[in-house]
Amino acid sequence: MAAESPLAFHHRSEVVLPVEPERLFAHLDDHRRLSSHMEKPSLMTAGASMRIDTDAGHGQAVGSVIRMSGRVLGVRLGLEEVVTEHAPPHRKVWETVGEPALLVIGAYRMGFSIEPFTGGSRLVVFIDYALPGRGLARLLGALVGRYYAAWCTRRMAEDARAAFPGPIRGPAPRDP
């Protein structure tokens, strides 16, 4: 990540799921599954999709590399991420390497944490990000970057909920 672009913006989505932390972590540790929302055209991606490629570590070990590439509105997009924390079944973090070629967010650190909760697990998906470095992308980032970040963390949390549906027994979670 570029040292000159502090990650000044943050978003997180939280969900409680009826699944033990070990199973939830194993499900989310498949980076292609976790980021599958990026491979499908949607309004938030302006109808574009990104291709996801991983190295031999499959994004499942510290130092493992994940690459995404695609086009939106004729503009080539791409990024490289590296896994910086991998602590099953509790936490995984990855971050961009260099300046990503994206339209509404710049460098970022993203991840999830899982903690046991009565009847299941509490999942928090988070992103810390910077605006793109310059030009039209910086303006777009200032206008819609927060919506994109919220959509991304929310999609990951909702996809996990869809994979593990069912009621939670016990008290509702509290925000920290």
Low-pLDDT windows of residues:
1-5, 170-176
CATH uppermost class? Alpha Beta
Order of helices and strands: EHHEEEEEEH
- From the spread of the alpha carbons, the general shape counts as globular
Protein name: Polyketide cyclase
InterPro entries: Polyketide_cyclase/dehydratase, START-like_dom_sf
Pfam family, one: Polyketide_cyc2
Account of the protein in words:
This is Polyketide cyclase. Pfam families: Polyketide_cyc2 (PF10604). It comes from Caldimonas caldifontis. InterPro entries: Polyketide_cyclase/dehydratase, START-like_dom_sf. With 176 residues, this protein is of the alpha+beta class. It has a single domain, classed as 2-Layer Sandwich (Alpha-D-Glucose-1,6-Bisphosphate, Chain A, domain 4). It is 23% helix and 35% strand. It has 3 helices and 7 strands, in the order E-H-H-E-E-E-E-E-E-H. It has a 7-stranded antiparallel sheet, with helices on one face. Strand 6 and strand 7 form a beta hairpin.
